[in-house]
Amino acid sequence: MAQNTRTVPAGTPTNVTQKHNKGGIGESILRPDGTLKVTGEFAYSSDMWHEDMLWGQTLRSTVAHAEIVSIDISEALAMPGVYSVLTYDDLPAEMKNYGLEIQDTPVLANGRVRHHGEPVALVAADHPETARRAAAKIKIDYRELPLVTDEASALAPDAPLIHEGRDDHHIGHVPHPNIVHRQPIIRGNVDEARKRADVIVEGEYTFGMQDQAFLGPESGLAVPSEDGGVELYVATQWLHSDLQQIAPVLGLPPEKVRMTLSGVGGAFGGREDISMQIHACLLALATNKPVKIVYNRFESFFGHVHRHPAKLYYEHGATKDGKLTHMKCKIVLDGGAYASASPAVVGNASSLSVGPYVLEDVDIEAIALYTNNPPCGAMRGFGAVQACFAYEAQMDKLAAKLGMDPVEFRQLNAMEQGTIMPTGQVVDAPAPVAELLRRVKARPLPPERQWESAGESADVRALPGGLSNTTHGEGVVRGVGYAVGIKNVGFSEGFDDYSTARVRLEVINGEPVAMVHTAMAEVGQGGITVHTQIARTELGVTQVTIHPADTQVGSAGSTSASRQTYMTGGAVKNTCEAVREALLEIGRRKNGSYHPAWATAELLLEGGKVVTDGGEVLADIADILEDEAIDLELEFRHAPTEPFDLVTGQGNGHVQYTFAAHRAVVEVDTELGLVKVVELATAQDVGKALNMLSVVGQIQGGTTQGLGVAIMEEIIVDPKTAKVRNPSFTDYLIPTILDTPTIPVDVLELADPKAPYGLRGMGEAPTLSSTPAVIAAIRQATGLEINKTPIRPEALTGTL
Q1: How do residues 243-252 score in pLDDT, each as one tens digit?
Q2: Phi, psi dihedrals of residue 72, rounded to the nearest 5°
Q3: Centroid of chain to Cα 755
Q4: Tell me, what's the pLDDT at 460?
């Protein structure tokens, strides 16, 4: 059962506009889409339908690296019901590649495939089964090429180049063309600091490739329009980024590609890149008919990027009294065949590689590789997850070597407000790292061997192995582990991060109604709920309408980087404030001569009325507006950031930092290698909880994803063929309700004065520290040195 506590220390500023409007910020109002989703009535993108629509199908490569010798589409075209078959030669525009930052990804393979599952051809037919069978009739002759699958093969002097003739802006700063991006961070003098260390620990860590595993597969509907353009209804994370990549390869101006967000069944970073969007549009324009594409689960594993697998090499030193002296690390991320978000992931991994600790002497290098493995990009935690796994293992090693309590050791070295990051950036908001650790440690531990307390009616679900009934408690030992992490919020390194909101206030049926229009992708995070709460708070209205997200309003940026409540919430807040001032100006013009408070008092909007700060009602909003409407669209930007120096890594690269800590309690059957996570307690500072119910849900969800990668989740890529071996939920395991433990949540609200309402982005932080906490608990239970995630039974039993 979920538990949560809420703490606002005395005297802590909350930076909240104090208005008393029902359903406003701070209340745990229910999500408008919640009931529809749990009852199966919510319309997802895969549910869309259009009269006379066709079905699209993608043919993907069966090998990871090969030259395409020939493609024969004649049999596919001859099938009844097939309307179109497209290959690279049929692409209509000069631009034939796309990408988030580096346009290195071909719409369809051009003479060469670089990873297993790369799109090669498209089919449109009048039935999905016809499209599938037609795609299977396309004959492709491949001549396989040597594979690049790891650091050694990628960086060898004679390594095959994944992308020959690179001309992107990173190529001049990397030592090898198979390195997408490299970011060093140098501060202080590690060689001198090492001399002060009484103990030094080293570690080599391996982090597996994790899938976002969203339940709603990639899907969308493209409808050709009369002006030669196309309407695209799609599940995505960033409408305007998609638009910027789609329009050039269609050969259309952006205004002729009109995008509308359809129902999204989860994302977690996996919808930040293009999947089926361009393909559906190409087929719709080629056939002049609506075309729907829906991936099945198998294809979904190839249709989006994954979390970067990583090798991490760390060295830490400490004095005998427990103070850290230095840190040196190298982080190698496998970016796969195309760049996706790898450059930004490198920036995050390097700049957050020290964790939430005070360290003055560091030598850091992070790189992302081009390989023939599946492309990797954005996933919840974005580079900070892999680093947290490694540095928290190092903290446990140091504490053990010094004979110190692992929590007290962390607290002794914990950063706080005013700490200088290795990049030279000052942490300018509360950083309650030590307090978060104190809270998770102080929580009472769950009873041991709970299955025994039930006597003969013991619930096997409380045992490792669960309903498989593999053990009755023999060989089961308990372990407790701790971890804490640091994550940045928002886009970094000088990116022009902004969001747009349009707000309209008018009277409908005698009642003031606010309409909020943004391009924010609601992917399950609850943004539409928060926008409703903000509008109610700032405009004093009860009725708020959320306009469907589309590209007819300015960009809201991506629903990623824990940024949407900060950025688009900030845009809604700012625009509502401007609408409020416009309303009050109308009120002053109409009523100012009747009451002096219009000119002198601080005026608020509450309960559909204009009131003074003393509570005196001056007018109804409806009476002020009458037949007028106020309609404004404004942009919101956070404080500017700057790129990290490419030699020293110095720079104010991040907007905001967020922190979470976890304590994991596990029970391990050491004979069978089975793990039961009994409890995964967490404490997190969220700045200001605009909706506590949503906050707790986000924290528990992120915690569960971290649990998954600790003990079960990994995409297995065959090192000999670079082919994915487990592209299904039968073989790629994710936590179910039976695997998910009790997750008590302790929420702190220490306001960031720079942020709207003092809030902190909080969706990603719990994904960081949950993984190393679980692994630390397993280490304590078994006595094994575990340096790889996920941890599998054979690793615990020594039967690898």
Answers
A1: 999 999 999 9
A2: -115, 110
A3: 20
A4: 80
